[in-house]
Design a protein that fits this description.
Number of strands: 3
CATH topology: 60s Ribosomal Protein L30, Chain: A
Pfam family, one: RusA
CATH superfamily: Holliday junction resolvase RusA
CATH architecture: 2-Layer Sandwich
Shape: globular
Radius of gyration: 15 Å
Protein name: RusA family crossover junction endodeoxyribonuclease
Number of helices: 3
Oligomer: single chain
InterPro entries: Endonuclease_RusA-like, RusA-like_sf
Order of helices and strands: HEHEHE
Structural class: alpha+beta
Strand content: 15-25%
Length: 126
């Protein structure tokens, strides 16, 4: 679901769905994470391919107050999409990722880690 959608009710339902899934994985009652965080989103799809840069903001918003206090804490983002009927290689998948792949249905894999490497790559300036 894109943050840019005109269907606000559908967007809010999507955020609730993301939050409920996160609550399931965050069930130990831990407080929100503090400090700098890295967010990784992998979109596994079948036929309907979404524009991946538009799906991140609703995910970030859905996790505020549960996984972290504010999405300003996210300093690094990695977004990927992979078509399920194509060949790709995954090394050392987590149990959650294995479960998602075993269903052979469209899904999002979301991972958040603390203290990302604060390395600056010098590519070019504009």
């Amino acid at each position: 679901m894109s943050q840019q959608t005109r269907r606000r009710q559908r967007l809010n339902l999507w955020k609730q769905q993301v939050r409920q899934a996160a609550e399931t994985g965050w069930s130990d009652g831990s407080p929100p994470l503090t400090g700098a965080l890295a967010l990784q989103v992998i979109y596994f799809y079948q036929n309907h391919e979404l524009d991946i840069d538009n799906i991140v903001k609703p995910i970030q918003d859905a996790l505020i107050g549960l996984i972290y206090d504010d999405d300003v804490q996210i300093t690094d983002i990695l977004i990927c999409k992979r078509q399920l009927d194509k060949t790709f290689k995954i090394r050392n998948p987590s149990l959650v990722l294995e479960q998602g792949l075993s269903k052979n249905q469209e899904f999002l894999y979301i991972s958040i880690s603390q203290y990302p490497k604060q390395k600056v790559l010098e590519l070019w300036t504009i």
